[in-house]
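Project outcomes to date are best conveyed with an example. Our students and postdoctoral researchers have been running inverse folding experiments weekly, and each run begins with a structure described purely in tokens. The record below, which covers 404 residues, was selected by the lab manager from last quarter's runs and is presented without edits.
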């Protein structure tokens, strides 16, 4: 990819836009607080990055190039506003613009909350990879989860740690993100597997008993000194039917909103506590939700670009960040086998050349294991695929002569 020409920047027009956004937030310049100005600043700047994000998505050169799809449950991206101003080459001119309005850019930047999308080294590495890919203009999409709360906000009382929810978006939302409802997907859980006879062939069909919507939010990953902007696409759990009016009218107010509560729990917090069965189930559901939505979006982009399904490894690489998203492998196999009716060998040839895996540590939290009973109940078709992968791998190993 070649560097793009920077947009011409009109400082006067930007100041008008900044005040317009401030007014839309319900504040007058004379009485607005620093946080109000920061939110208006972020929204005014986001107009530029969102336009470049859409333009980058529709760039034919990018559609015909091979893309990296980075799947990670963590992206510790840090505060975006100052970083994006530097990448856009606008730090000094925006500092001048807000100074002319009687404000200091440093003071405004201090109002930003860190997006609570990661916890430590794993998330920071993922964020740095995305920054590097954008800076070097290697086509890429990051896939994560749109957590309502981060791990926790830490404080101390009488020498003891106190934990509170980290509501990083706060009531006003986060100015840099944009919701993409047109890319919403439906993700299934539980249910059973049917055997389908069709045209003399036997197929497996998963029939989920629970379905939840995956709503995508995009954060801009801005390329350094270019107009290239790649999406960090974050999936949020939402109910297909969030409100049951009949139950509400009958006085069962909790049941009326239960579907919305259950769906929201999927992306409520980063790393839900898994020292009990309910937590283990939620964490596996969270990981499958993330992986299935991401695989579905990758296939959508690939096919909409006019590429053949068999050419997926030529145009897409799916990089798995530790074991959290590895359920994406049997998910892609399931889709190729059941939805596109490919044979096992053809589906495996595509999958085995599409995925790559990064292992960062040998600690147990990075090398997760799940009970067979939980996997079979929550993802019955995937359990079948995993058994088949294991059987074929063992058979191949045994035939190789390496078996004792």
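After processing, the design step wrote out the following sequence:
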């Amino acid at each position: 990819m070649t560097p793009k020409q920077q947009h011409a920047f009109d400082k006067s027009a930007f100041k008008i836009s900044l005040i317009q956004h401030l007014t839309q937030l319900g504040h007058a310049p004379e009485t607005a607080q620093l946080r109000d100005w920061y939110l208006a600043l972020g929204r005014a700047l986001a107009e530029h990055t969102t336009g470049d994000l859409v333009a980058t998505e529709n760039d034919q050169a990018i559609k015909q190039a091979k893309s990296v799809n980075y799947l990670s449950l963590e992206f510790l991206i840090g505060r975006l506003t100052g970083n994006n101003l530097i990448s856009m080459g606008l730090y000094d001119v925006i500092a001048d613009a807000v100074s002319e309005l009687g404000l200091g850019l440093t003071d405004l930047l201090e109002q930003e909350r860190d997006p609570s999308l990661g916890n430590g080294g794993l998330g920071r590495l993922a964020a740095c990879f995305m920054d590097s890919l954008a800076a070097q203009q290697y086509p890429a999409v990051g896939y994560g989860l749109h957590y309502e709360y981060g791990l926790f906000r830490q404080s101390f009382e009488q020498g003891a740690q106190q934990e509170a929810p980290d509501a990083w978006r706060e009531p006003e939302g986060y100015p840099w993100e944009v919701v993409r409802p047109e890319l919403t997907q439906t993700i299934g859980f539980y249910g059973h597997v049917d055997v389908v006879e069709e045209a003399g062939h036997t197929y497996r069909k998963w029939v989920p008993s629970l379905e939840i919507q995956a709503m995508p939010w995009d954060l801009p990953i801005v390329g350094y000194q270019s107009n290239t902007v790649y999406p960090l696409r974050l999936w949020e759990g939402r109910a297909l039917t969030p409100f049951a009016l009949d139950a509400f009218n009958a006085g069962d107010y909790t049941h009326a909103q239960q579907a919305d509560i259950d769906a929201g729990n999927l992306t409520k917090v980063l790393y839900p506590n898994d020292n009990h069965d309910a937590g283990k189930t939620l964490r596996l559901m969270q990981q499958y939700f993330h992986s299935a939505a991401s695989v579905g979006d990758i296939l959508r982009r690939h096919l909409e670009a006019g590429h053949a399904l068999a050419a997926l490894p030529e145009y897409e690489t799916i990089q798995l960040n530790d074991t959290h998203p590895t359920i994406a492998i049997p998910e892609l196999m399931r889709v190729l086998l059941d939805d596109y009716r490919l044979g096992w060998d053809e589906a495996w040839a595509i999958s085995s050349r599409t995925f790559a895996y990064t292992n960062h540590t040998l600690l147990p939290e990075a090398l997760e294991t799940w009970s067979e009973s939980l996997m079979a109940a929550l993802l019955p078709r995937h359990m079948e695929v995993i058994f088949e992968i294991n059987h074929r791998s063992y058979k191949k190993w045994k035939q190789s002569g390496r078996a004792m």
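The chain has 16 helices and twelve strands. The chain has a mean pLDDT of 90. The training component of this project remains on track.
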